Structures are given as C-alpha cells and as structure tokens.
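notes to self, project folder thing:

trying the whole complex as one job this time. last attempt i did each chain seperately and stitching them together was a nightmare. two parts in total, labels are on each line so i dont mix them up again. if this works i'll redo the older ones the same way
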Amino acid sequence: MRFLLNVFLLLAIALAVGFGLSWYALTDGRLFGATQVGPWTAWLRAGSPAPDPYTRAFLTRSGVLQLGQSEGVQFVATTDSDGQALDRNCRYRIDGATPTATFWTLAPTSPDGTLIASAGGDPEFRSTRVARANDGSVQLYVSKALSPLNWLEIGGEGPFWLVLTLYDTALFSGIGGSQIIMPAVLREGC
Amino acid sequence: MVRSALFAIGGLLLGLVLHLVVILNLPAVANTTAFGQLLAITPTTNKTVPLVGATAGVGNPLRLDPDLSYAACRLDLRNGPGEVTGSLPVSFWSVAVYDPSGTVIYSTTNRDGIGQSLDLGVFDPAQTRLLAEQKIDVNAGLLIVESRSDDVVVVVRLAPSQPAEQPRYTQQLGKLNCRNIKL
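result (full assembly):
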C-alpha cells in the first residue's frame, strides 16, 4: 500500500512539474527565452532562422505569423506597469519612448488576437500618425470613454492585450545601447 | 520517510524529462501552426494570394497587422528553384520565407538597398550547388535563398502610408510573379 502511494506521489509530481513547467514556459516564458521590459514581453529569437526549442514551441503553440528578424519584432503587454491585467473598462495611457524603428503600430486585441478597436475608427495606432511631445515621446490613450491627445476607442468587455510591433527596428543591431526602452502602461481609472 | 523523499525526487526528475519531451515534440504534433494556416490559404503553388486584412471584431489567427497589406506565395522546389519577382510601390515592404516548421529562414526589407524591385530566388541545396557550378541561369541581382525544405511559403508585407491606399497596395501585391525557374 505504501509503495502504491509512493508511486502515486511520483506520478503526481512528474505530471505537475512536466506539464506545469511547459505551460509556464510557453505563456510567461521569462526564464525560457522571452524578454520582458516592464509590462512588455517579446520572444526576440522568434524571427531567427535558428530559434531555440522554447521559442519554436512557443511559435507552434501561438500559431502566429511571426516577423523575420530583419522585418521587426513584436512586444505584447497583458498587464499594466503595476502588474494588473488590462481591462477594457479602464482607461490606459501608454507613455514614453519606443525603440528605434522605421515605424511601429500599437493594437489593442483580445487574448485570441481579434482587434477590439471600435468599428468605424482606426484599428490601431501607427507611429507616423500620432502626435508627439517635443522629446519625441508619445502619450497614447486606450479606453472606451473619450480621452485627450492620441485616443483609440475600444469596445467589448473583459481582458485585452496591447501588441506593439516595431518594423525594421535597430533593436538587434545594438544601435542606441543594449538596454531596451519601452513606454509605460499606466491605468488612469476604471 | 526517506523512501517517500526519494520517490518525490524521482518524480521531479521524471517531470523535467516530461517537460523536455513536451517542448521538443510540440512542433511535430501541433496542427494549427502558422505554416499550416498559410497552406490552407495558398492551396496551389506558383500563385500569389493576397491575404485578407485584419479588421476589428473578426478573428485574426495569424495576428496580421491591420495597417499592412500581405500576400503569400507557395513554392514547391521539387519542380525547380522558385522565384518571386515584381515591382512594389514606394513604401516600406518586407519579405520573409517560411519553412514547414514555421521558421523564417530568410527575411529582408526594402531598407536594405533593394529599392522597389523584388527579385527573390529560393533554391534547395542541390539547386544551389548547380547554381554555384553555373548550370542554372538566373537574372543578375536575384537574391538567393537556400532552403533545406522543398516546401516553402514566401510572405510579402507592404505598408501603405495611408489607409486609403491599402486596396491599391493589396492589388499590387497580387501582381507579383510566383513561379519555378525553368532549368
């Protein structure tokens, strides 16, 4: 009886560690290949001709058409800068500078990738069509209610993600230093 | 007690092995990969297919950028080296070659000094060898990409400067030539 209990313990630990660790590696991924800067996460080797096994598994699981390394890189924020999950009933300010790139787009999406901007308006922000501060930084608002400056109206209920895509970025060339500077995602009210 | 601890450590080690098995085998057993979706969109080879752009409220499994126009072209290198050629508007564009594992084996943008003319050739290792031996004639300036797989999909992304230009840009992408080079 005791032997059977020990075998049960072994199998329970093996399954929990095996599948739990795999799930963590392919969602959060920070310890396994994903890069995190504030609330933003990116798999920087996703567009590489020789991705590591974790990146390859992440790409398989997500099913997304990732950019090649020369084309750009995508960052995703699922929380604000304080670590709270993004909620469509709150107003968020994306504030700060982005890494050097020919241009970038910022899209609010549901977790399954569907765009959640209100119909009839712009589906996303694009760097070439936003107002900037004198130092080049941006202040972007994402909310259901009317907001100042650059505002993108969203609809629906529930959690959402912010997807920032940098095209033709200097991120991989080392230009501008090795530290990646990303804008903050600030919750301003719900 | 000691025996239970040993079983727990055994479970931990077995869990790590299971984790590695899951990570390493996931690409082989998954059925909703990006490449699989591309094959569904481009059922025939040698044909440039503009991809339907992402719009609000509609599913977007490939996570396409709504500001960009896309076209995909499927090539079978068993029929000879593949090429994708054509002219593109004066705007940012990029091209990526995907193999069946969904890996981008090559990508570039028009910022790399290519200009507005896309001339991309995809060769398998045997064809690359023939090319090196000058047994295949190709146009000067053709970008040569070597693929270990005979099945590849080339995706071209084009970024209109204004949303109103998107239909015209998508139409332009559909005019790209996608074919096998005759040996």
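what i see at first glance: The beta strands of chain A are 35-37, 40-42, 72-77, 91-96, 101-109, 125-126, 138-143, 150-153, 161-169, 184-189.
need to look closer tmrw
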